[in-house]
Amino acid sequence: MREFDVVVIGGGPAGYVAAIRSAQLGMSTALVDEYIGKDGKPALGGTCLNAGCIPSKALLDSSEHYHRVRNKFASHGIKAQGVELDVPTMIKRKDKIVATLTKGVAGLFKKNNITWLQGHGSLQLGMKVSVAPTNGGEAEVVQAKHIIIATGSVPRTLPNLSIDQEKIVDSTGALEFTEVPKRLGVIGAGVIGLELGSVWSRLGAEVVVLEAMDEFLAMTDEAIAKEALKEFKRQGLDIHLGARVKNADVTGEGVTVDYEDADGAHQFTVDKLVVAVGRKPHTEGLNSTEVDLYIDESGYIHVDEYCCTNIPDIYAIGDVVQGPMLAHKGSEEGVMVAERIAGKKTRVNHDTIPWVIYTWPEIAWVGKTEKALKKEAREFQSGTFPMRASGRALAMEETVGLVKVIADAKTDEILGVHIFGAAASELIAEAVVAMEYNASAEDLACIVHAHPTMSEAVHEAALGVHKRSLHI
Ligand code: FAD
Ligand code: AMP
Question: Which of 12, 64, 245, 457 has its CA 20 to 30 A from that of 268?
Fold first, then answer.
């Protein structure tokens, strides 16, 4: 029986990073992964590289180029004629990027001497992992000193509809359309629904988004959610709040969707329907019951702050444990666990994990919202700065949005930074650094920001905490 210091189950951004760090620290490492790519071949990288972060960003960029050339170039004095859309080429470009990255991870495994065990991993008593190859070959059982579970998450579905990846699709299917649907329905105005809805809307689909909750983007800052809703509606997304989908049927013409809102029952027909009602932790087939691994009532593997499960030497990281389902959160947990196994005292600061919603403009934040602080009865003051007052935003014609900096009323420590605007996903990094170093709003206000840049809006919002903004 082969023996390893560390056996990781799951090759997404949580698992593969944990494996690389374990190997860097001199531990013999194997990683079990069962993912089969679109080309029918095994691929590392999990949801993120194969069907999540990366392919969605590839399409996002393509759709933004198309939208710009058709709608934004004219005011710059650039006349574009005969612009045509070639969706299959767009999809091929996306697939190429995915292949480059997944092969890149395989290359990193070789470089770090990590053994990739292709197949389905399940836990066995006595710190063993059984690996059943996807091609049906004989299962191999390996012995581990430490096991890291990183089995990720899978899309949630609704009881009265079945995903056929043709007309009713989940997020994976929504990355594979070969033509732009005329009418596209999206169930769920969450991170994934808004991102994918925006992609197809920019490419020309009429997009209807149905969201069960009355509040739009309840987890984001209220002022930003309000402005984002207004902007997305202006862009043409037909967003219905308080609209709970009950049923969807594939018919000759498309998909008939039944939903209920405060006014009663409604029905409409779309060509395709994207179900984006969230994701659930993936523990199926892990054999958790036999080894007595504790899974909580929401389906997550229960862990402490160091990602230790109830079984000594078995850890769990990424989407399969509580916390935001974000790739970078899982990767950092992977690094922490590898380092703790190697005897280091590493921890992850879950309070400074940045969130990004890749609409256009983007929404990004770190830390707490005003609503959450009010609930905690914590006193704060905040400064906001609208993008329309930024010279760079004006030059770029990207004047939608704002930056908000929230700081403790007494200590001035930054408690949250919320951004809606072009390049928010990049701008948020400054706020993460500031919060990681327990900076005050004044610290941020004292830092020189290059002119003209979008980052000046962060500076001005920090100045605004003390009513000192200069350009508003
Ligand atoms: P996963 O990436 O889900 O990987 C788990 C891996 O384990 C998979 O390869 C799976 O096949 C394998 N596996 C599971 N069980 C077993 C088993 N028993 N044996 C062997 N292998 C197994 N996050 C961001 O941070 N930024 C984004 O921009 C972003 N965009 C997204 C867009 C979309 C459309 C989607 C769907 C998700 C997006 N996410 C994004 C979320 C991100 O993809 C996840 O948070 C991330 O992939 C979680 O990483 P993970 O390693 O925990 O699990
Ligand atoms: P996220 O978890 O960010 O991907 O968001 C998923 C969204 O789907 C949440 O905002 C849910 O409120 C929404 N949702 C879940 N079930 C339904 C439903 N039956 N109809 C409409 N929206 C739903």
Answer: 64
Report percent pLDDT > 90 for the chain. 98
Known catalytic residues are 451
Best mutation site among 20, 44, 48 for ligand 1 pocket (most ligand atoms within 8 Å of CB): 48
What's CA 269's distance to the chain center, in Å? 29
Distance 319 CA to ligand 1 centre (A): 7
Per-residue pLDDT tens over the stretch 3-31: 999 999 999 999 999 999 999 999 999 99
Q: Which ligand is nearest to the CA of 150?
A: 1
Distance 379 CA to ligand 2 centre (A): 32
Select from 211, 259, 266 the residue to mutate for testing ligand 2; criterion: most ligand atoms less than 8 Å from CB. 211
Q: Topology of domain 168-277, per CATH?
A: FAD/NAD(P)-binding domain (3.50.50)
Integer Cα distance of 448 and 284 in angstroms: 51
Locate the domains of the chain by residue range: 3-155+280-351, 168-277, 361-464
The predicted pLDDT at position 102 comes to: 97
Q: What is the pLDDT of residues 344-400, one digit of tens each?
A: 999 999 999 999 999 999 999 999 999 999 999 999 999 999 999 999 999 999 999
